[in-house]
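G., before I forget:
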Amino acid sequence: MNELTCALAAALPDGRVLTDPDVVDSYARDRTFVPPGRALGVVLAQSRDDVVATMRWASEHRVPVVPRGAGTGLAGGATAVDGCVVLSLARMTAIRELSPQDEIAVVEPGVITADLDRAAREHGLMYAPDPSSYEISTIGGNLATNAGGLRCVKYGVTRDSTLGLEVVLADGRVLNTGRRTMKGVTGYDLTGLFVGSEGTLGVITAATVRLRRAPREMATVAAEFTSLRDAAAAVSAIVAAGCQPSMLELMDRTTLKAIDDWKNIGLEPSTKAMLIAQAEGSADEMAALCGAASFVAVSSTPEEAAELIGIRRLAYQAKERLGQCLVEDVCVPRSVLPEMITTIEEVAARHGVMIATVAHAGDGNVHPVFVFDRGLAEPPEEVWTAADEVFRAALDLGGTLTGEHGVGLLKKRWLGLETGPVAAELHQGIKQVFDPLNILNPGKAI
Amino acid sequence: MNELTCALAAALPDGRVLTDPDVVDSYARDRTFVPPGRALGVVLAQSRDDVVATMRWASEHRVPVVPRGAGTGLAGGATAVDGCVVLSLARMTAIRELSPQDEIAVVEPGVITADLDRAAREHGLMYAPDPSSYEISTIGGNLATNAGGLRCVKYGVTRDSTLGLEVVLADGRVLNTGRRTMKGVTGYDLTGLFVGSEGTLGVITAATVRLRRAPREMATVAAEFTSLRDAAAAVSAIVAAGCQPSMLELMDRTTLKAIDDWKNIGLEPSTKAMLIAQAEGSADEMAALCGAASFVAVSSTPEEAAELIGIRRLAYQAKERLGQCLVEDVCVPRSVLPEMITTIEEVAARHGVMIATVAHAGDGNVHPVFVFDRGLAEPPEEVWTAADEVFRAALDLGGTLTGEHGVGLLKKRWLGLETGPVAAELHQGIKQVFDPLNILNPGKAI
């Protein structure tokens, strides 16, 4: 330890500060390929007071602080910067309160998202936002990125389930935002501002989240298509018919092939896309709306439904068997989903890059996964060129650079294309209000 | 016209600026009793460019600008301040775009909320937020206050339906926030920050709003109860059973009596409360959950449903027949709704004040309406004393000062009780970033 980290350790209970270089390195990255900076140390916060002490110390010594959940981020939001301390919230795992009557929970940032969902289900409730990583990602990280997920086509994203926050500000002061009620309009929406701000405005130490009644009967349908356009047409038909799907997932052939090679799902050579849809009510109606499908499977039991959805949940792991993956995250208006997917295929062909695409199709949120050689330290030039073309195409189609992963470090060079100079100035102004010393996750998100 | 307003008129197309004192006075108030200041004039904006020219002029001459929709606000947000110009957006009434495929619309602020809903319904969609005023209030005012409504128990408030905004900043620059997609996390949530900021951060000149599939079959139930507690218990039962009501309205006896005196709805002497619930699906289940009701009516046709809901929509007008009304707007966790309503009754009795209460019960959002003598210019002291006790009780119960009306001028003296000094400092800091000259609706909301 040096003088700085000694002072930090002295301000905290024993065992909270780690400075062993190998250990510190293991906290320096999320799941992106952005090369991390060298951190001074890691704080394993176990309480709000630990966070307060860390931020006071950081303000006093002007040390950058990089807050961190489970490190499952896909945009470099939790990547260490030179001279920082990494502030891990992963040990703050208390569900402080769960009120079935009020359908709310008060949770600490280190709670695993799926654990909160399971706790809610004991009362017939659910925590709706379910990023694909929900078995390993934390509420804190979900809040930082305003994470989406499969169910958000019906229930909205993390911000839509967040009623209030306890936040430690850059100078160590504690702020409570929002409320415990379903509605409330007192003051500016500071809660919404913190959600999605990627740790640049404050450190969230608790969140009051909204729970929802778990649906009673779910119908699940999986349909195979011989063209992506037919699959996209079924997406539109299911939405337009008012089925209100709580899941509407699309996988392209490259993704299905990767799954089939691994798990032998019996993929037909002619299948170009699969759609997995889930809704309350009748499966037959959704199945009928997949008119052009070459094959439709309907679940009649929860076990069968889990099996159908399980195929989708294998997608990332299956791709990781093929090589290293740059997981991207554009979102377009639903009507141009076919154009977006076609463009991705063209870009892949033009640059000789393997792109396997899954989409939260009901939201127009498309994840092109760029697969590249396992031996490389980071994505090769042609992958970045292809990604650049995909990002620009999404913007040209009226879409956004990131539907649910965040900007982090990874997308900062494209940020201005979407938000423009006026927004950039306002972002910097807001940052200055909350973090005048620029110590909170500097260089990220905005 | 004086020199200032002449310069303003010269910067705008003919006929946009009104300075006749009587006319200006008619734009100086909303529906509250806050005494307005004296405005220099009124701008009737017809385009974004009119707003840009007005804000440039206002910045140059440091003139306060009070943006205004239909003037139906209940917190003094649109009340004129001394030396201001009132900027009316009521003539910007274009629905610029309505895309059934993408389930979005791009609308100008002067569009009447119910008109947007009707336009959406032509395509099987709806615009969900429906403040009680939705036939006379505008989208712009709804955005400024983050208005709620009857349906928001299921579909959320105005912010939840807002994807992006076109905003004219204090200095006349134009900012586009947000997106046209269902999801998106690029940059800070400026869209959410403007919504509910009551015209203090910028002037909204267009909004991209989310439309939703209109539900297919609606079941409507009206139930009468001989005690408020029984009615509140039915609220909890309906929510807990997973009926997912899109309307769950409670009226107390004072309200029902006012309606009965006017429209002869056959109110029984023993009836203390009425609940009106609407949901997709079966009315029988909801009716059964109103087990303690003394009478239950179930609609079997849309006409009958409209009649049942019509009783609720008469509530405010019925009360206005009794005297002048101070309409209040606390919101509490649903589990303490009975305590909140009991407290209101006790406060009414203690101070000899007539309070008629309606509640968006599913949200815990309670509107105690303080009725006072028609001859008075503003609410008498005992009404304010009673209101103060109601506000403090709501906060003590874990609630908020305002569920959907906003802070405006009316609630500024209570604001600090809810948000505290740290939030106040951040509010002022944000205000300074967006409006360094403090010309946008100064003195309101924060």
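DSSP finds 15 helices and 19 strands in chain A. The longest helix of chain A spans residues 412-434.

More on Monday.
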